[in-house]
Each structure stands twice: as structure tokens, then as C-alpha cells.
Design brief:
The structure is a single chain. With 350 residues, this protein is of the alpha+beta class. It has three domains: 2-101, Carboxypeptidase-like, regulatory domain (Immunoglobulin-like); 106-231, Ferric Hydroxamate Uptake Protein, Chain A, domain 1; 238-347, no CATH class. Helices cover 19% and strands 36% of the residues. It contains eight helices and 20 strands. The strands form six sheets. The protein has a five-stranded mixed β-sheet. Strand 8 and strand 9 (116-119) form a beta hairpin. The longest helix has 21 residues, at 2-22. The protein starts with a helix and ends with a strand.
Length: 350
């Protein structure tokens, strides 16, 4: 009996020992740095994959974390940088982790200003950006239509004539000598007339520079604000991509001025004449009838048709983007059709 108790106690002791050995955590240390600058990263998160064990780097980029055994996987993450996974091979060696910048995060955090870039958090109120996806949703007949209601402090006034140059006010009316903003299309200074003639389907992005700091690089010419337009271009190592866009719409006057018909107008004339002591001008109002509402004769329903086709692609040596467009826009006054043809063009070849 004593031997059985001793054997049972020995088995229990062995089980407790093996359990403590299996549950033992071994410390692993290392350093996390920025691969581009070589600077240590403070506050980087290190997590043991599949567990809730987490550690963070100190001011010098050092960290220490407990792992169960060699072969454990550590996940390192840091805001704005690509996450890294590393396998612990030697528990005694110090780990060195280098993290790279994430292209997706970097592009969304900077904006183009003149010949350089600035953090978007510093100029968020001074710049408005319109992407090609926004242009495709709006289906505008003219590219200036994408500016309407898309940026605070920017006023776009159309004269009403199809194809006419618009009035764009970015910083109010700063000068009696002119209000047109400076237009930069693919790095080349242009005018609002050139901006108005661009096919909206060819636009990659439009940046509106409103603040004095963001327009300073353009000098006095940027005093009325700057419109920076980037058109679509070819892409390296891409198969030819052919796109065709078409849309048809109609324009008409939403509200007209309420007017009197001929009978109502005749009655008003009679009342005014008799009140003044005169004779009745129209003795028989029934002969006047309804008359003609000249607003209905002048304002017509006008159609808008827009068609564009493009080819985009490239290889290691050359990129290409070819496009052609045709726009037919009628006027609600007169209804005459205004046709605009954008011939095939080649945008930046590299």
C-alpha cells in the first residue's frame, strides 16, 4: 500500500514538473528601426502570433517579449509602415527588425503643391482634391462642372452659353484687373479656356490650391488661386486597356416666371383704365383667349451627348495614352447644337 502511494505521488510530481516546463516563457529582445532613415521606432507593437502577448518598443527602439520556444512568430506593426513577421530562431540572439514605408499610406498622406509635396494634415483646409473616380460619377459635359460644390470657398459661374469659358472664383474677387485663377496642366501654365477644353474622361485628378502658402511658389500669378490638373498617362508593363464611355442627357429650365395670360392681362388693363377715369380698353375679354407664353417659345429642351474612347498601356521602354472625344451640347435658348470634337491625343510618353 505504501509503495502504491509513493508511486502515485511520484507520478503527480512528474506531471507538475513537466507542466511547469512546458508553460515556461523565455525572453527575447531586439531593436526596431526605420529601414530608410535608420532611426529607432518608438512605440512599435510586437505581438506573439496567435496569442495576446504584446510588447512595445522604448525610446531607443528596444523591446523584450516572452515566447514559449524557438520557432515562435512575432508580428511587428507601426503606423504608416508595412507590418513585418519574423520567426525567432535563436532565443539568445538579439533581433534586428527594419520596417519599410507603406506606399498606400504614403500616397494618401501627401498632396502635390507646386514642385514638391506637403503633409495633407498641414494643408487640409488650403487644398481640395478631386479624383478621376469623382469625375466618372458626375459624368460632366465640361471639366469645370466637377468643381461646383466640391470645394469650400470656390465659386463657379457659367455664362449659360454652351462651351463658353466659366468664371471661377477661388479667393473671392481679389483684383479689379482679373479674377481668373492660374491653371497648371501637367506642369505647363495654361488658361481657363484650355481648362474648359479638356475632356473630363482624360482627367486623373484636379487640385485646387486656395491658401497663400500653397500658391506662393507661383508668385503673383497664383494670387487668384491655382488649379493643378493631372491628366491620365500610360503605365509600365501593362497590357493595352481600351475604354469607351458614352452618356446622353437633357437640359431644361427648372422654373419659369409666373405670368398672366392674355385674358388676365386684358382684365388688369381694363381695371387700371377705369380706375383712372378712362374707358374700357377691351370690351370683350373672351376674344383675347390665352395668348402666347413666350417663355415656352424661347426655352427648349436641349440634349447633351458625350462620347470618348481611349487606349492605355505600356512596356519597359514606353508608356502611352491615346484618347478621342466628341461632345454635342444644345442650348436651352434657341436649341442650336454646339459640337466639340477632341481629336486623338498622345499624353505623356516616357
Amino acid at each position: 500500500m505504501k509503495q502504491k502511494i509513493a508511486l502515485l505521488s511520484l507520478c503527480l510530481l512528474a506531471a507538475v514538473f513537466f507542466q511547469s516546463v512546458l508553460g515556461q516563457q523565455l525572453p527575447v529582445s531586439g531593436t526596431v528601426t526605420n529601414k530608410t532613415t535608420g532611426e529607432p521606432l518608438t512605440g512599435a507593437t510586437i505581438q506573439l502570433k496567435g496569442t495576446k502577448t504584446v510588447a512595445q518598443t522604448d525610446a531607443m527602439g528596444h523591446f523584450s517579449i516572452n515566447v514559449p520556444a524557438a520557432g515562435s512568430v512575432l508580428m511587428i506593426s507601426y503606423t504608416g509602415l508595412k507590418p513585418v513577421e519574423i520567426t525567432v530562431k535563436d532565443l539568445k540572439a538579439s533581433l534586428t527588425v527594419q520596417m519599410e514605408e507603406s506606399a498606400t499610406v504614403t500616397l494618401s498622406d501627401v498632396v502635390v503643391v507646386g514642385y514638391g509635396t506637403q503633409k495633407i494634415t498641414k494643408v487640409s483646409g488650403a487644398i481640395a482634391t478631386i479624383k478621376s473616380a469623382d469625375v466618372e460619377k458626375l459624368k460632366p459635359a465640361r471639366v469645370e462642372e466637377v468643381l461646383q460644390g466640391r470645394a469650400s470657398g470656390v465659386v463657379v459661374v457659367n455664362s449659360g452659353t454652351p462651351g463658353a469659358k466659366p468664371t471661377v472664383l477661388i479667393r473671392g474677387i481679389p483684383s479689379f484687373s482679373g479674377t481668373d485663377p492660374l491653371v497648371i496642366i501637367d506642369g505647363v501654365p495654361q488658361t481657363l479656356t484650355d481648362f474648359n477644353s479638356i475632356n473630363p474622361a482624360d482627367v486623373e485628378s484636379v487640385n485646387l490650391l486656395k491658401d497663400a502658402a500653397t500658391t506662393a511658389i507661383y508668385g503673383v500669378k497664383g494670387g487668384n488661386g491655382v488649379i493643378v490638373v493631372t491628366t491620365k498617362a500610360g503605365r509600365k508593363n501593362q497590357k493595352t486597356e481600351i475604354s469607351f464611355n458614352s452618356n446622353v442627357g437633357f437640359q431644361q429650365v427648372i422654373n419659369t416666371v409666373g405670368v398672366l395670360n392674355a385674358t388676365e392681362y386684358g382684365a388688369m388693363i381694363n381695371e387700371g383704365s377705369t380706375t383712372a377715369g378712362g374707358n374700357v380698353i377691351f370690351p370683350d375679354l373672351s376674344v383675347l383667349g390665352v395668348g402666347t407664353n413666350w417663355q415656352n417659345e424661347v426655352f427648349k429642351t436641349a440634349s447633351v451627348q458625350n462620347y470618348s474612347v481611349s487606349a492605355r498601356g505600356g512596356n519597359d521602354k514606353m508608356n502611352y495614352f491615346l484618347s478621342a472625344g466628341w461632345l454635342s451640347q444644345g442650348g436651352i435658348v434657341g436649341g442650336e447644337m454646339i459640337n466639340h470634337f477632341s481629336p486623338a491625343v498622345i499624353l505623356p510618353l516616357t
